[in-house]
């Protein structure tokens, strides 16, 4: 008996470009680059480690520092194995700058929301974070797979699960962002709806909605002090009303000074309207019709992925510059030596979620209390 794993990443590449999917998917050629890991830090992953640690009752700051240190050591070691010498300090500058940013973001996040219950302002409380799932969907597909005995699993990892005071379940999407997302994108996000359907399949429990928990990739700055010793009144400063008021006092000045009127009014207005420069939270709610439509679309896509799909390129108007497999694709479709390129630059391999859920057997959960207890016990 063989197993097929369908993930959000797999679906995304299938819908984006079938040629890319055929190269990348663990269910197809499953090829990966042979390159040495680049000397960069994935900011979102570092922040997630801190949120996960806090939800387990551990120190989030210590968790992000440990993660950053381990990532740095791992990447430096890979570099040494590839090149035979240590990377230059300039080559690690971007990594170290992102490390400082990650630790700063974690500090200001918990300073803003507290460690006790960082979702408290939304009336929610975590019941689990970074939760992998594996669901046998073979019976839903409605057609005979080419290999008898094949099972098809829907797999993924939920950022987090939370409940309100009535034990209604909410998906929590913990995201770092450069540009604040629009509300329509949040409401109709393919992955969020998929998590809700996955939970319904797993537990039979309805999911009321979700929470977009956004953390901007931007640190709050301390207000500037001019050469004259006076506090700057430049309204372009990346600071908050609370910090600016504190800085006025710390600098021995008076908030009643007329020169502070404009900037205090400016920061007050931002604060009252909801300051999204550093944090952004928005709840969204699902309807049964919305989730049923998602389920129908999802099953149609999976059937098409598995039932002898046609493979062809989807070339964007501006070209394929952002595709990791563009060199291989261009070689294949221009008569080049594909076998030589495959040998020199590529290898076969899998990826995180699929490896994590292999061998995991299902656990029957039918209530929020059972879910909470299961997640608490890891």
What does this structure look like?
The protein has 14 helices and eight strands. The chain is α/β, with parallel strands linked by helices and 378 residues long. It has a domain at 3-35 and 119-217 and 278-376: Lambda Exonuclease, Chain A, CATH 3.90.320. The strands form two sheets. Strands 1, 3, 4, 5, 6 and 7 form a six-stranded mixed sheet that branches. A two-stranded antiparallel sheet has the order 2-8. The longest helix is centred in the N-terminal third of the chain and has 24 residues, at 60-83.
Topology:
Blueprint: E1 3-6, H1 8-16, H2 18-24, E2 31-33, H3 43-55, H4 60-83, H5 93-113, E3 125-136, E4 151-163, E5 169-177, H6 183-187, H7 190-203, E6 207-216, H8 241-250, H9 261-273, E7 279-285, H10 288-306, H11 326-332, H12 338-345, E8 346-348, H13 352-357, H14 368-376
Helix pairs in contact: 1-2, 3-4, 3-5, 4-5, 7-10
In short:
It is built from 14 helices and eight strands. The protein has 378 residues and is of the alpha/beta class.
């Amino acid at each position: 008996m063989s197993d097929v794993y369908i993930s959000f990443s797999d679906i995304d590449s299938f819908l984006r470009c079938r040629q890319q999917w055929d190269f990348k998917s663990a269910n197809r050629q499953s090829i990966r680059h042979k390159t040495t890991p680049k000397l960069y830090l994935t900011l979102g992953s570092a922040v997630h480690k801190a949120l996960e640690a806090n939800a387990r009752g551990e120190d989030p700051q210590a968790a992000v520092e440990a993660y950053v240190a381990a990532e740095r050591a791992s990447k430096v070691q890979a570099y040494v194995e590839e090149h035979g010498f240590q990377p230059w300090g300039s080559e690690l500058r971007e990594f170290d700058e992102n490390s400082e940013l990650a630790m700063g973001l974690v500090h200001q996040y918990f300073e803003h929301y507290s460690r006790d219950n960082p979702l408290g302002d939304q009336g929610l409380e975590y019941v689990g974070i970074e939760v992998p799932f594996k669901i046998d969907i073979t019976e839903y597909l409605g057609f005979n797979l080419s290999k008898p005995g094949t099972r098809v699993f829907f797999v993924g990892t939920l950022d987090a699960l939370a409940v309100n005071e009535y034990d209604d379940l909410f998906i929590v999407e913990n995201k770092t962002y450069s540009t604040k997302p629009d509300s329509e994108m949040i409401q109709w996000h393919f992955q969020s709806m998929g998590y809700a359907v996955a939970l319904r399949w797993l537990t039979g429990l309805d999911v009321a909605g979700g929470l977009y928990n956004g953390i901007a990739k931007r640190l709050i700055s301390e207000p500037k002090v001019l050469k004259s010793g006076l506090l700057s009144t430049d309204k372009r400063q990346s600071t908050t009303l609370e910090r600016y008021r504190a800085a006025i006092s710390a600098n021995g000045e008076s908030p009643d000074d007329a020169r502070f009127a404009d900037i205090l009014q400016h920061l007050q207005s931002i604060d009252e309207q909801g300051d999204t420069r550093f944090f952004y939270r928005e709840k969204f709610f699902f309807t049964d019709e919305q989730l049923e439509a998602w389920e129908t679309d999802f099953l149609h896509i999976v059937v098409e992925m598995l039932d002898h799909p046609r493979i062809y390129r989807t070339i964007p108007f501006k070209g394929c510059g952002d595709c990791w497999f563009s060199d291989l694709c261009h070689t294949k479709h221009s008569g080049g030596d594909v076998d030589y390129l495959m040998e020199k630059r590529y290898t076969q391999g899998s990826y995180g979620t699929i490896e994590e859920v292999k061998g995991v057997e299902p656990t029957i959960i039918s209530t929020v209390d059972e879910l909470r207890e299961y997640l608490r016990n890891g």
